[in-house]
Design brief:
Layout (H helix, E strand, L loop, with lengths): L2 E7 L15 H10 L4 E5 L3 H13 L3 E6 L8 H10 L4 E3 L8 H18 L3 E4 L9 H10 L5 E3 L2 H6 L8 H12 L1 E6 L17 H21 L5 E6 L19 H29 L1
Parallel strand pairs: 1-2, 1-8, 2-3, 3-4, 4-5, 5-6, 6-7, 7-8
Helix pairs in contact: 5-7, 7-8, 8-9
GO molecular function: isomerase activity
Protein name: Xylose isomerase-like TIM barrel
InterPro entries: Xyl_isomerase-like_sf
Length: 286
């Protein structure tokens, strides 16, 4: 049976307040467990950090994804070794390069995919600004070259990066859906054409929230058609600290991101529950 796991980003647990008050790491992990998240996104380029965090997550019965930011093929090798030792449901790879041409991307993607294949570890390439995948149309050209490329879909970057007008036009919507059709995991925040991260608890942002929920629903439906019956889909709540989070004149955030992360988790899980109910109805009617 296919499953959805909703994770919380440890980066998103940083507060970066003017008063310097931060939650200790052990408290962050307890909060994630007690709030009902299924796991966390963990940076794996810091081995000692990954070792300590995954040990605690495992004690709590939670799982995790491995985050990394390689600039070369070889920089993925130690990450794979860490995952082989510590475990992870997959590696989330932000390609920390900014090639001018598709041709420059080919040896990198082929090398990363070869390492993933040889190790038997799933590697998803994240759509993200200031990375190889920074631009929506450039990434679509990558998909022309690698039609089966497995992405982590973080579509917030494309909405703000290309300044999608409201209402979103048919062409932009079609491009986003093509990204979603290649997405094997999701990172979640809600953007607008001018802001990378909107406060989803604010009523006047509801139109953008509803748009992202519709896109995620489409992405989940697409994944369910492509994935095996026993596959697990992960959705990482990634409401980041400033400068992602908007702040007031004193440097304090305009909303409670931790409460909004829990809100986002509930909305996403409800999407999945609704899809399961729809699938059950179709099976009974068949």
């Amino acid at each position: 049976m296919q499953q959805l796991k909703v994770y919380q980003s440890l980066w998103a647990m940083e507060r970066r307040r003017p008063d310097g008050v931060e939650w200790p790491l052990d408290e962050q992990l307890r909060m994630i467990r007690d709030a009902g998240f299924d796991g966390a996104g963990v940076r794996f380029f810091d081995y000692a950090f990954a070792r300590d965090v995954t040990r605690t997550l495992k004690e709590y019965g939670l799982t995790w994804q491995a985050q990394c930011y390689p600039k070369s093929v070889d920089e993925l090798k130690p990450i794979i070794e860490h995952v082989q030792e510590l475990g992870a449901d997959h590696i989330n790879l932000q390609p920390d390069v900014r090639p001018y041409s598709i041709e420059e991307c080919i040896p990198l993607i082929e090398g990363w995919r070869r390492l993933a294949h040889d190790s038997g570890i799933a590697v998803h390439i994240e759509t993200h600004r200031n990375r190889m995948t920074t631009d929506l149309l450039f990434t679509l050209r990558l998909l022309d070259c690698f039609p089966d490329l497995r992405l982590t879909g973080d579509i917030s970057h494309y909405v703000v990066g290309r300044e999608f007008a409201w209402p979103v036009c048919e062409e932009d919507d079609r491009h986003v859906r093509r990204i979603l059709d290649n997405s094997w995991g999701f990172h979640g925040r809600v953007a607008s054409r001018e802001q990378i991260q909107l406060q989803i608890s604010f009523a006047h942002h509801k139109e953008w929230l509803d748009l992202f929920l519709a896109w995620w629903k489409y992405g989940f439906e697409s994944w369910r058609r492509r994935a095996p019956d026993d596959a697990v889909l992960t959705f990482l709540c990634e409401l980041g600290p400033k400068e992602y989070a908007m702040t007031d004149c004193n440097g304090y955030e305009l909303s409670d991101r931790w409460e909004e992360a829990s809100m986002l988790k509930g909305l996403v899980k409800q999407l999945w529950t609704d899809l399961e109910a729809e699938a059950g109805k179709e099976q009974r009617a068949a």
